[in-house]
Specification:
Strand 3 and strand 4 form a beta hairpin. With about 180 residues, the chain is α+β, with helices and mostly antiparallel strands. The relative contact order is 0.23. It has 3 helices and 9 strands. Strands 1-2-3-4-5-6-7-8 form an 8-stranded antiparallel β-barrel.
Amino acid sequence: MTSATRFLAVAALAAVLAAPAAHAAAPLPTVPALDLDRYVGVWHEIARYPNRFQESCAGDVTATYTRNADGTIGVVNACRKADGETMRAQGVARMVTPPATLAVRFAPAWLAWLPLVWGDYWVIDLADDYRYAVVGEPSREYLWVLAREPRLPDADWQRIVARLPALGYDPSRLVRTPAS
């Protein structure tokens, strides 16, 4: 099994693990509006909660979103491993409930009918100019801080970290992502 295939398989498993789960915390709010045409493009991971499916990622983590003709969003996640190799996983996202609730699938298309292969992808914080986004999911086990540039200004970082506890997230669990 190639490392790219392994990465894809692990990403598919992550989608299953990110499926809705019972959570005692208050419902997770999303941003009031998400313009998908502004959201598509390249995002750089600034930080994340540690997770199994990104253990091999040493840095330079990106997510690239493109609009598909059928209304879905194409997803390509990539990262640099410690040996310099780039890993990629391709998936698809669909709007579940506006304004900012999406479902993402990295499993093969023939499994798309299974609800468990779709992971929650909720935009819970977003800069007015779309320079950064914070993505989570209802169980609060996964969290990503994304930005249009590989580095995020400290003022933006401090604002995001200060807001996380109100959303039910522990900012001390965040791990910063190395960028070249």
